[in-house]
Automatic annotation (TrEMBL):
Gene Ontology terms for molecular function: lyase activity; nickel cation binding
Signal peptide: none
Name this protein carries in UniProt: Putative nickel insertion protein
Organism: Pirellulimonas nuda
Family indicated by similarity: Belongs to the LarC family.
InterPro entries per UniProt: Ni_insertion
UniProt xrefs under HAMAP family: LarC (MF_01074)
One Pfam entry name: Ni_insertion
Keywords: Lyase, Nickel
Length: 393
């Protein structure tokens, strides 16, 4: 299977995407022909080779006549529908702009029909997005993967004023996308880049096993203390099932040490944490000062849940402080499954391993109920469920 991987070490933008596509082998004249058919004021894509902190890359600049138009989604879709783009190219370009419209409408309390495109409605942004849609179609890959996305830090000036990074629309577009912890000062991921990621990427995680055919480097316009590059790796996957690649996301780890809390209160706290959406809760026996035995409470949380879970720990325990870390974790893709045992059906979770095989974990409550009802050992039900699932593969 032919796949592509976006290595977004320095974020992603529309022009960086275009540069990476051209650098990986997509013909710029083919992209330009599609742009020309949109009916935009004189608009030309200019490619040049540049260096970013010593590394070469292709940089795309959109040259066009000055304009001051603010467009709605229907203005842009009309351009796309009236162009010479192929059906897949029109669908992809429209999908990216629709994602942008939905994000803008959400943050401004409007609708996708009424929302104004400001920066992303300008000629250069239209060229970047439509050009990217053409380029991805010409690249002819079946799956697109990406690394976690860094957004940068600080502030950015947009049409609505000075906003913290990520800009509101960018943050909305990156809902559900794993973010990388990279404290570079400045905007690394733009709304256009975030929309491309949201519309195109199938999975996030490390580089999949593959035979590399080409590598493209797209340069951003700004200079940082790091190479401001987007790397695009294209090739054939070597995995029996490329979707088995582990997913990478960002979580918050909360930890505290306790030596003066009754066990019942700790148990109650753990129950509340699970109910509030903790990803995982664990305790470890430790030794503390003056030889007192204690316990370390560790809570894994989605970034959006971390504050609520921290409040539970402070309310329900004697903790005076919490250690907080933002960490990356790899998570195997999983799905729900069932297995038919001699005593009844058992539900469970199916994990997809990197080699393409599937591992079935039976649901404890189902196994417990069947074991009690049939007078069988719990282990026998577990074994029967795993054997039944394996026989059905």
């Amino acid at each position: 299977m032919r796949i592509a991987y976006l290595d977004c070490a320095s974020g992603i933008s529309g022009d960086m995407t275009l540069g990476a596509l051209v650098d990986a082998g997509v013909e710029l004249p083919a992209i330009q022909a599609g742009i020309d058919s949109l009916g935009l004021p004189s608009c030309r894509l200019v490619a040049s080779e540049v260096k970013k902190r010593g590394f070469r890359a292709t940089q795309i600049v959109v040259e066009h006549e000055p304009e001051h138009a603010h467009r709605h989604l229907h203005h842009i879709t009309k351009m796309i529908d009236g162009s010479t783009l192929t059906a897949p190219q029109r669908e992809l370009a429209t999908a990216i702009f629709t994602r942008l419209a939905e994000a803008e409408a959400k943050v401004h309390g409007s609708t996708i029909e009424k929302v104004h495109f400001h920066e992303v409605g300008a000629v250069d942004s239209i060229a970047d997005i439509v050009g990217a849609a053409i380029g991805w179609d010409l690249l002819q890959v079946e799956k697109i993967y990406a690394s976690p996305i860094p957004t940068g830090t600080g502030f950015v000036q947009i049409a609505h004023g000075r906003c913290s990074i990520p800009a509101p629309a960018t943050a909305e577009l990156l809902r559900g996308v794993p973010l990388a912890d990279f404290a570079a000062e400045g905007e690394l991921t733009t709304p256009t880049g975030a929309a491309i990621v949201a519309a195109l990427v199938d999975r996030f995680g490390p580089l999949p096993a593959m035979h590399i055919e080409s590598i493209g480097y797209g340069a951003g316009q700004k200079d940082f203390d790091h190479p401001n590059l987007l790397r695009l790796v294209v090739g054939e996957t070597t995995s029996p099932d490329p979707d088995a690649v582990a997913l990478c996301d960002t979580i918050v780890l909360l930890e505290t040490n306790l030596d003066d809390l009754p066990a019942e209160q700790l148990g109650y706290c753990i129950e509340r944490l699970w109910e509030a959406g903790a990803l995982d809760v664990a305790t470890t026996a430790i030794g503390m000062k003056k030889g007192r035995p204690g316990v370390q409470l560790a809570v894994q949380a989605a970034p959006t849940d971390a504050e609520a879970l921290a409040r539970i720990v402070f309310r329900e325990t004697t903790a005076l402080g919490l250690r907080r870390q933002v960490v990356q974790r790899e998570v195997l893709p999983r799905e729900k499954g069932t297995a038919q045992t001699p005593w009844g059906e058992v539900r469970g979770t199916v994990a997809l391993l990197p080699d393409g095989t599937r591992r079935f974990a039976p649901e404890y409550e189902d196994c417990k109920a069947l074991a009690a009802g049939a007078g069988q050992p719990l282990e026998a039900v577990y074994l029967a469920a795993r054997a039944a699932f394996a026989s059905d593969l």
